[in-house]
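queue> pop job 88
queue> type: inverse folding (structure -> sequence)
queue> payload:
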């Protein structure tokens, strides 16, 4: 399996993550990512369909996180996911 990385850049910092899994729900793309310390996060693509670059934001809504964690847990049957 090919290792995939994603780099998030804003005015203050640059963060690099490894993509563990991805899914699409209600027309939105989501990534389950991990950092060098093995913390997991869920990112949501907020860019429009016509935009060339993806614009990812951390999912912070508790209900959305809970639902997505269940989906990713099913996709990664042998991985224990904990909310960060």
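queue> result:
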């Amino acid at each position: 399996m090919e290792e995939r990385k994603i780099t998030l850049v804003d005015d203050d910092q640059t963060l690099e993550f490894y993509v563990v899994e991805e899914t699409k729900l209600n027309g939105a793309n989501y990534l389950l990512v991990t950092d060098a310390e093995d913390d997991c996060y869920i990112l949501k693509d907020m860019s429009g369909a016509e935009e060339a670059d993806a614009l990812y934001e951390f999912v912070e809504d508790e209900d959305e996180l809970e639902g997505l964690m269940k989906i990713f847990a099913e996709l990664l049957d042998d991985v224990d996911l904990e909310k960060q």
